[in-house]
UniProtKB/TrEMBL annotation:
GO molecular function: protein-tyrosine sulfotransferase activity
Pfam families hit by this protein: Sulfotransfer_3 (PF13469), TPR_8 (PF13181)
Superkingdom, taxonomy of origin: Bacteria
Keyword match Transferase: yes
UniProt xrefs under InterPro entries: P-loop_NTPase, TPR-like_helical_dom_sf, TPR_rpt, TPST-like
Record organism: Opacimonas viscosa
Name this polypeptide is given: Sulfotransferase
UniProtKB keywords: TPR repeat, Transferase
Annotated TPR repeat ranges: 81-114, 283-316
Length: 664
């Protein structure tokens, strides 16, 4: 047992004995040691110690001092739910009811299994005669109190991010009670978090059979089906759920989301509107409908929804970032002032702060205040990176394994018999111009753009096996037989059919597919691949100032994004040596300088005739979901080509790196 664990046990024991003064003395000894010497304690231990110090101060009737300590704790761990719960207790002692309610609400948003916070919310809402809110809190208390104690404890561990302990505890309980639905549901949630989606689906399907009238289970199963790229099954399940619960807004919302998944955007908007009519104060649904409006080019309606979302919830960071992410929206002075106040507010959660920080970066960029702009882009990146734990070395190793296990020799024979030439893969780093290439090519009568389809990465995960076992992919690509490869190729064609409308060719624009081009060549040997390149400084800076909805974890530190760019070039050079006949490199700057010439080159590579519509791509009416949606609805512009140079004094990690490596 570590010294830290021993100290923590001793302090907790003293607190249980209500010897708070002695506990506080030992806590201060630990904190003073860590302040004056090289820290030897892990961060998780220091967070827990700081939290216990605040609790001791409150019990010793020093709530104001406790709040001061909790402010310091928030800077160290902005999403630590128990810290907010302790804030709530302190504010309640001080008679600050509104602040207490806000703190307890923040606590349960982060950690829905904090029974003490729900009890306090019930009491405070009752005091304020907020009967509906008091009832909701009381219902939650009853739900949690009915859970078997091991599952309640495991639920708490799950929400604290201690997944391994929560999984072990839940599995042990289910051995004794294999049909306990809350336990099955929790284990499914843990599996989802670990991206073991097949297990999650099996657990939820079994739980649903045991509890067929549980709407929450149905909704969670629909979500898992979507994550497993079973779009047709997810859509039909959502239709069934909506028919079963026609007056339940969450069932309608699930159907709206599945309509978006299969690109039925107009129908999705209809359902989002129904949810808004039923739940007019539900800020997040306005964001979702706004995204749908953005997808079909109804920018004014998207703006109105995003603005309404932050009107309902002032610190809704995603609302401000969604406005910024339109790329064409100009923030007002009032909006900027509001974001500035909130991004420095101790009560605002980390997730909301980094959304607003990126939005402020865009706001000051539009004002040409590049120093201020970089300050907030850097803040957003720092806050986002702090929650990811990205390991650049591990990712570089994964790309090296592709090179090691996919030599040119394995692509000369033993390929899939799926000869369908329909798929066109556009790969590249994010912000390298792939959406522009998709828009150009999708303006051709024989080619349609679908979306960033996740199927190839899902196949790669499947070939890697269960994460609890040693991964086999990509080493096993050399040994897969023709029947298996053919089955995967046919499966891709079949599963992507739901996104298509009948043209001979379609585009999958998932950028990260570049890491799996060997798999693509093996299962779809006649597929064409377009390698979207962009000058490294412009590409890397554009990625650095973009907050991505998910993935692209390399993009939040300059050193990581530079390394990832190099890894991309290294891996694409390898694929080019393996099957050059399948790959065409297209440089973004060449598109800007010679649109027609580059369009002709791409169409010739794809084997289709030239069409003028590809030159007027901005007039093509189609759904676009990526951040470049508004940009590709406008003619070619040189505006962003040298934009990074305004930030050159702040991009030293990038400029030094690419000066040393030379142009790529």
């Amino acid at each position: 047992m570590s010294v830290a664990s021993t100290d923590l046990r001793s302090i907790k024991r003293m607190m249980q004995q209500q010897n708070f003064a002695a506990a506080l003395r030992d806590i201060d000894l630990i904190l003073n040691t860590s302040d004056t010497q090289t820290p030897t304690y892990p961060k998780a231990f220091l967070i827990e110690i700081a939290y216990l110090k605040a609790a001791c101060l409150r019990y010793l009737e020093h709530p104001s001092e406790a709040l001061h300590e909790l402010q310091k704790l928030q800077k160290m761990a902005p999403d630590f739910a128990k810290g907010f719960q302790e804030q709530g207790h302190c504010h309640r002692v001080l008679g600050q009811t509104e602040l207490a309610i806000l703190a307890f609400q923040r606590a349960v948003n982060l950690h829905p299994a904090l029974v003490a916070s729900w009890k306090q919310l019930h009491a405070l809402f009752t005091l304020q005669k907020e009967d509906a809110l008091a009832s909701q809190a009381q219902t939650r208390v009853h739900e949690l109190s009915r859970l078997p104690p091991p599952i309640l404890q495991a639920t708490g561990l799950y929400h604290e991010g201690k997944l391994a302990i929560a999984e072990r505890m839940t599995r042990d309980f289910l051995k004794q009670a294999p049909k306990n639905v809350p336990g099955m549901r929790l284990l499914a949630q843990i599996a989802k978090q670990l991206y073991i989606l097949e297990d999650a689906e099996i657990l939820l399907a079994a739980a649903q059979k045991l509890s067929p009238d549980d709407l929450t289970l149905e909704l969670e199963l629909i979500e898992i089906l979507q994550k497993r790229q079973k779009h047709s099954a997810a859509y039909h399940s959502a239709q069934t759920c909506h028919a079963k619960y026609p007056k339940e807004p969450m069932a309608t919302l699930a159907l709206a989301n599945q309509c978006m998944g299969i690109n039925e955007v107009d129908m999705a908007i209809t359902h989002f509107t129904e949810v808004i009519q039923a739940l007019p104060q539900h800020a997040n649904v306005y964001i979702q409908r706004g995204h749908a409006y953005k997808t079909i080019g109804q920018t004014d309606l998207a703006v109105a929804d995003y603005q309404h979302a932050y009107t309902l919830k002032a610190d809704f960071g995603d609302a401000y970032w969604s406005l910024a992410n339109l790329k064409t929206y100009q923030f007002s002075d009032v909006e900027i002032a509001q974001m500035l106040r909130l991004v420095h507010d101790d009560f605002v959660l980390n997730n909301e702060k980094y959304h607003m920080a990126f939005a402020l970066g865009k706001a000051y960029e539009d004002q040409k205040d590049y120093g201020k702009s970089y300050e907030y882009y850097a803040l957003g990146n720092t806050l986002k990176a702090s929650e990811l734990g990205y390991e650049a070395e591990k990712v570089s190793l994964q790309m090296s394994e592709q090179i090691t296990h996919c030599p040119p020799s394995i692509f000369s024979d033993n390929l899939s018999e799926c000869t369908d030439p329909a798929p066109i893969f556009i790969v590249g780093l994010p912000r390298a111009g792939s959406t522009l290439l998709e828009q150009i090519l999708a303006s051709h009568s024989q080619i349609e753009g679908t979306s960033e389809l996740p199927h190839i990465m899902a196949f790669a995960r499947r070939l890697s096996g269960n994460k609890r076992a040693a991964p086999e992919y990509p080493a096993n690509l050399q040994s897969l037989d023709v029947a298996t490869l053919t089955a995967l190729g046919n499966e891709f064609i079949k599963e992507t059919q739901i996104h298509r409308t009948g043209t001979p060719y379609f585009i999958d624009k998932m950028p990260n597919n570049f890491r799996h081009l060997g798999l693509i060549k093996k299962i779809l040997p006649h597929a064409k691949i377009i390698d979207a390149r962009r000058e490294p400084m412009a590409c890397c800076f554009s990625g650095y100032k973009q907050l991505f909805a998910e993935g692209q974890e390399f993009s939040y530190r300059q050193t990581d994004i530079a390394r990832y760019y190099d890894d991309y070039i290294r891996l694409m050079d390898h694929w080019q040596t393996c099957f050059p006949e399948n790959i065409l490199k297209v440089q973004h700057e060449d598109i800007l300088d010679d649109l027609e010439g580059q369009v002709r080159k791409m169409l010739d590579f794809l084997g289709v005739d030239f069409e003028e519509s590809c030159l007027t791509f901005y007039a093509t009416k189609r759904n676009v979901k990526t951040p470049s949606a508004e940009q590709v609805r406008q003619p070619i512009s040189q505006k962003a080509r040298y934009q990074w140079q305004h930030y050159a004094p702040y991009l030293t990690d990038l400029t030094k790196h690419f000066d040393s490596t030379g142009p790529l």
